Amino acid sequence: MDGSSPAPGPRVEWLGELRYGEALELQQAAVADRLAGRCPDRLLLLEHPAVVTLGRSTRPENLRETPDALRRRGVDVFEVGRGGDVTYHAPGQLVGYPILDLDALDRRDVHDHLRRLEAGLIDALEGFGLPARRVPGWTGVFVDRARSASPDGPERKIASIGVGIRRWVTFHGFALNVSLDLAGFDAIVPCGLHGVEMTSVAREREREGARPLPREELDRALREAVARSLGSRLAPDSTPEA
Amino acid sequence: MSITVELPSLGESVFEGTVSRWLVSEGEMVEVDQPIVEVTTDKVDAEIPAPSAGVIEQILVSEGDVVEVGAVLARIDPDAKPAPSPSAAEPASVPAAPAAVPAAPPVARPEAGPERGVAATPVARRVAEEAEIDLREVEGTGSAGRVTKDDVLRHQTGGAAPSQPAATASEATAAAPAPRPPSPAPQATRAPARPAPSFGYELQPGDRVIKMSPMRRIIADHMVYSKRTSPHVGTVAEVDLSRVVALRSQHKKSFQEKYGTSLTFLPFVVHAVVRALRDFPALNASVVEDAIIEKQDIHIGVATETEKGLVVPVVRNADRLSLSGTAMAIDELSTRARNRKLTADDLKGGTFTVSNPGRQGNLYGFAIINQPQVGILRMGEISKRPVVRTLEGEDAIVIRTMMYLALSYDHRAVDGAPANGFLYRIRELLEAGEFEL
To answer: Fewest beta carbons less than 10 Å away: which of A195, B59, B80, B348?
Structure first.
C-alpha cells in the first residue's frame, strides 16, 4: 500500500431492471474481469423482474407453490448453483452485487464482508429514520423492533444477504426490500426461516407514520443512500496519515 | 508426488465449512486456479481453486461434510495425464461452468457404462458401495441426472423418485461440466470404505448424517480410552453452600469493580479442591505402568463447554493462587476457550479436573476421568433445598443453598477411604466458608 492518495470505493453502477439469468452471466463476467485486473471493484445495483430462486439446499417445504403455478402468475423460477435456500426478487427491491477483490483490499475474511454489507444497509436505513439491526446467528438486516413504532410480533426482515467468493473476488450480495409488494413472499419461506416476517422500507415507513413518498422517489432515494453508505463501508480501509 | 488441496482460511471467525458441491470428479484434469469445490459457511459460498494443474487423484471429503480450516479436501497429481477419453481434453480447458444460463439445453445423462461412469455424488457412491447397490440401476434426480444419496436410499427402500419441484424447463443446469470423463482409477486403488462399526444400523430416508469433526473424534477416542483404562468409581457428597453464598454476595460488587470479572462459585470449588489435594495426594496422581506417581505440582483442569465441544484448559500451580487469583485464571482461560484462542500449552499437564456442566437439569452426574489423571470432580446444580439442622438443640427444617459434588476416581490407584476422605474434606472447606477475599 502506498497510502499517498485516498483510494476510492467501488465503482457504483445502476443497471436498472435485469433478468436474473442475465444478471448472473454479467456477474460471472465481472468476476472474471476483476480477477484479470481488467476493472476496479464494482458495486452493481439493479432490480430483477419477479423471480423465485432455488438454492441447491432448498427444501421443498420452503416453496409453498409449485414452479408451474408460479410461472402461470408471471413469476420466473430459477435454480441457482449456489447453496442456501429460496429467495424472492421483484421490482421495488434493491439488489446489490458487489464485485470486490478482497485479496487486493487485504480483507481476506468472508464474515467481515458479510458484516460490512449489513452495516452499510443499516446505515442507509437509519439515515432514513428506520431503526435496523442484525440478529445474531442470522445473516441479513432486520428492523430493530424495540426502537420501532410496532415493537411486538415476529422478527421483521428487511434485507437478505448471500455471498459467493471465487479466489477472493465476491459476487452475489444483498436484496433490500424497498417498495415491492410483500405478498410475493407468500409463495416461499424466505431463506428457510420460519417465523420471520418480511417487511419493506415502505411498509415500515407506514408503521412509523412517515410521510408517504411516491414509489419511484422512494426507490431512488434508497438507491442513493445505499450507494453512499455501502460505498464507504466497502472502500479500502483508510490507512492512518503518516 | 501429489499436491494436497486444503480448506484455506476464509476469515478470522471462520473455523469450518460445509462441502456443498464438488465441481470436478476423481480422474478429471484441472487447471491451476480452476474452482474445484464449493464450501459454504453461513451465507457465503466459497469456491476453492486448484493450487496446481493436474489430475484429481483423490477426493477425500463428501458433499455435506463439515470440514475444518486446514483439512485436506483432495489430492492432485500434477504430473498425471488426463484419462484417455474422447471428452477428457474438453473439461481440462473449460473451467467448471458456474450456474449457467436458463436456456441451456438439457444435459444428456452420461452413457451407462461401467459403474464408475455413472454420474453420482461421492456420498451416493459410498452409500451404494456399502449397500452393494449397482449405481447403474439407480435413477438419478440430482443436477444433470446425477445420482444422489437420497436416490440410492430410495432405490434401496424401493421407493419411486419424487416429482421434483424444480425439474422444469428453466432448470438452470447448475451442473458442473458434463459429460465427465470416467475415472481412470481402477477399483483396487480406491480408498477402502471406512470400517466404522455401525452395529447393523441402516440409513433411513430422512436421517441426517453428521460426520465427526476432528475435535469430536479426539473427544470420542479419549472417552473410550479412559473408560477402558480406568475402573471408575463414583461417590457423591452434598454440600451446604450457605457460607459461600453469603461471602459471595458480600464481595460480589467489590470483586467486580476490583478485578473486572464476576465472582462465580467455580473458583471456590477449585480452591477447596486444591486444598483437599494437599491433604490427599493420592488423588493428585497418575498410573504409569506398575507405579503410581504422586505429583508435587497441582494443576487443575477446568472442563469448559465451547461451541466446538469440550475443552479442558489448565490452571497452573493452582495451589499458589489466592481465591481471587484462581477466579482470574479461570476467567481468562474460559474467555480464551470461547474465543478459541487457547494454545496447546493451555491444555497440557493437568493433574486433577473440575467439571461444571451448567446449572439446570443437573442434580449430579459422574464425569469420565481425564487421562492420565485419577480423579475428576463434577459440580451438580446449585439450588435451595429443605435440610434438617439442629438449631439451639432443636431439630428444624431449614432452607439452604445446596449442591451435590460427584467424584469419579480410578480404583486402580485410589481406594474408597482416601477418595471419600478427599471428598469430605472439600465439603468441609466449602461449608466452613473460610476463604480470603
So the answer is: A195
Q: Is B415 a catalytic residue?
A: yes
If we measure between CA atoms, which residue out of A187, A53, A12 comes closest to residue B170? A53
Lowest-confidence pick of B172-176, B252-256, B285-289, B423-427: B172-176
B92: distance to nearest CA of chain A, Å? 18
Cβ–Cβ of B166/A68 closer than 8 Å?
no
Nearest CB to B98: which of A28, A67, A76?
A: A28
Put simply, the chain A residues between 1 and 20 with a CB less than 8 A from any chain B CB are none
Option in B10, B103, B168 nearest A67 (CB):
B168
Smallest Cβ distance to A56: which of B13, B35, B174?
B174
A165 vs B101: CB contact, 8 Å cut-off?
no
Q: Which domains does chain A have, with CATH numbers?
A: 11-234 (3.30.930.10)
CATH number for the domain harbouring residue B233: 3.30.559.10
Tens digits of per-residue pLDDT, A94-139? Answer: 999 999 999 999 899 998 999 999 999 999 999 988 999 998 878 8
Cβ distance A122 to A79 under 8 Å? no
B61 pairs with which residues across the strands? none
Strands (E), B267-351: 285-288, 291-294, 300-306, 309-311, 314-315
Query: Model's pTM, two decimal places?
Result: 0.49
Measured between alpha carbons, how far is B267 from B260 in angstroms, rounded to an integer?
Answer: 15
Q: How far apart are CA B97 and CA B176, in angstroms?
A: 6
What SS3 class is residue B136?
helix
B77 DSSP β-pair partners: B55
Cα Rg, chain A, nearest whole Å = 18
User: B217-225: which pairs have CB atoms within 8 A and are 24 or more residues apart?
Assistant: B219/B309, B219/B310, B222/B370, B222/B371, B223/B368, B225/B371
Could you tell me the residue range of the domain that residue B128 belongs to? Answer: 3-211
CA atoms of A171 and A163, how far apart (whole Å): 6
A83/B45 CB distance under 8 A: yes
What ipTM is given for this predicted complex?
A: 0.77
pLDDT, position B101: 32
